[in-house]
Amino acid sequence: MNKRYIVTANASRARVFAHQAGVVREVDTLIHPEGRLHTGDLRTGGKGESDDAVSHSPHQSGSDDATMEKHAAFFAKEVADYLRQARTQGKADEFIIAAAPHFLGLIRQKLDKPTQACVIHTLDKDLSSADEEELAKKFRPPLN
């Protein structure tokens, strides 16, 4: 019988579930707190206070978006590395990945070819707060 992992993820958290014989149980959680912060909170060197000369616009410059993207890409690589290790260590030989649409794309980019070949289903939806029972129903064969 194949060893299957279900991974639910967004830019701040990835949860890993073992899925065998219709039973789903959580085996690991990866946390990336930077993915949860607002872009202004990611800056270094200050206390987050602006000087009077700086505009008080709620929207920051494009560099903030680049910072968030960099953090998301870094975490996507961490998730992809975790899956590669699970595959090479024989912990799992099939993967189902459910992630927020943009983050799912980043994970796909970071997966190596052998691990990509083990992904049997993807879902572009953030299910990172779903419980084990919900995931067991969602990913019961045949996959929907």
TrEMBL record:
It comes from the Bacteria. Residues 35-67 are annotated as: Disordered. InterPro entries: Host_attachment_protein (IPR019291). Residues 35-54 have a biased composition (Basic and acidic residues). It holds the Pfam family Host_attach. This is Host attachment protein.
